């Protein structure tokens, strides 16, 4: 057998290269990003902490007051210590974490719906529709979100009665906080979606769909919108961290979610008078907020790189 024949036979025997889908390529690139995987690991630990912890400590125990144990330092009985009215801080960080994450996810869900709709219609229809929607977006963008949160929480937080859900009592101010954060956080996402639609609506498949008489609503939601999921996912991920911080800001000022609902933010409010004398009161909820925000930001940055279509090549 000649050398040329041997080379041809060896080439035929090689395994053909594996063709990966865009999702597989994105996941492979995300796994190579150590910071993103570290953020994902931290988020997994936090979710395990607040979910598994709720099976260990009951909410009644988390809200139980015992003035004889007030301001206790961390110990075996109370690993995170106790607060000014004797409540176990570890148990309260578990249930407070659930509400803080709920606020982040619910507020971002509202922002995502509003931002995607505004950006999609503005980018697809252009012209007068684009001008009106973008001028409205810019007007809302100029409203100081923190100032609006403070005003709304102060004057509307007590207007809604407490309510029961899944056997738990929640403060009515929780709804106000979620709505205000959600309806003041959609503007950047709307701009991102608009820019994507302005580019994608000129593609051949959109032109072909129009020529076939496909309705505009179907083109928007079935053909164009699925191709904008990457920037939406990144914006939503980073938005959760921003929403958690926004709630912590106003709760620290005493205008956030009211009792009996605990959040990491309003736990910091309880610690304002004991910053030096009992630092454990603010250290643990503050640490959990810091870890959560850092983890989400690490993961968001990694998703931004992994989902970039210009880099999905091997």
CATH class: Mainly Alpha
How many beta-strand elements?
2
Overall mean pLDDT stands at 82
CATH architecture: Orthogonal Bundle
Largest sheet: 2 strands, antiparallel
As a percent range, the share of strand residues is: under 5%
Order of helices and strands: HHHHHHHEEHHHHHHH
Q: What's the CATH H-level homologous superfamily?
A: MetI-like
Helix/strand/pairing class, anyone? mainly alpha
Shape: globular
Low-pLDDT stretches are none
Structure description:
It is a single chain. This protein is an all-alpha fold. The protein has one domain (41-58, 100-311): MetI-like (MetI-like fold). It has 14 helices and two strands, in the order αααααααββααααααα. It has helices spanning 3-13, 22-32, 34-56, 59-63, 89-125, 127-141, 145-156, 173-183, 187-200, 204-211, 216-224, 229-252, 264-270, 280-306; strands spanning 163-165, 168-170. The protein has a two-stranded antiparallel ribbon with strand order 1-2. The longest helix is centred in the middle third of the chain and has 37 residues, at 89-125.
């Amino acid at each position: 057998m000649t050398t040329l024949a041997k080379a041809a036979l060896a080439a035929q025997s090689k395994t053909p290269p594996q063709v990966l889908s865009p999702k597989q390529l994105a996941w492979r690139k995300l796994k190579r990003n150590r910071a993103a995987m570290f953020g994902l690991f931290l988020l997994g630990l936090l979710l395990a902490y607040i979910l598994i912890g709720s099976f260990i400590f009951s909410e009644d125990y988390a809200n139980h007051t015992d003035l004889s144990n007030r301001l206790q330092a961390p110990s075996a009985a109370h690993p995170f210590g106790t607060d000014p009215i004797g409540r176990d801080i570890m148990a309260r960080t578990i249930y407070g974490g659930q509400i803080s994450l709920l606020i982040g996810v619910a507020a971002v869900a509202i922002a995502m719906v509003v931002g995607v709709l505004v950006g999609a219609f503005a980018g697809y229809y252009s012209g007068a529709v684009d001008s009106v929607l973008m001028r409205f977006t810019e007007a809302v963008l100029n409203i100081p979100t923190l100032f609006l949160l403070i005003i709304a929480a102060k004057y509307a937080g007590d207007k809604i009665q407490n309510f029961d859900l899944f056997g738990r009592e929640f403060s009515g101010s929780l709804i106000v906080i979620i709505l205000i954060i959600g309806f003041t956080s959609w503007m950047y996402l709307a701009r991102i979606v608009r820019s994507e639609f302005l580019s994608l609506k000129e593609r051949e498949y959109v032109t072909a769909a129009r020529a076939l008489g496909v309705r505009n609503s179907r083109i928007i939601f079935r053909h164009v919108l699925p191709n904008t999921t990457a920037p939406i996912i990144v914006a939503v991920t980073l938005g959760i961290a921003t929403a958690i911080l926004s709630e912590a800001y106003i709760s620290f000022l005493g205008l956030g979610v009211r009792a009996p609902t605990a959040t990491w933010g309003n736990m910091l409010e309880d610690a304002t008078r004991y910053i030096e004398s009992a630092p454990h009161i603010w250290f643990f909820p503050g640490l959990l907020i810091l870890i959560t925000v850092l983890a989400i930001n690490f993961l968001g940055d990694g998703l931004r790189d992994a989902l970039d279509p210009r880099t999905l090549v091997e």
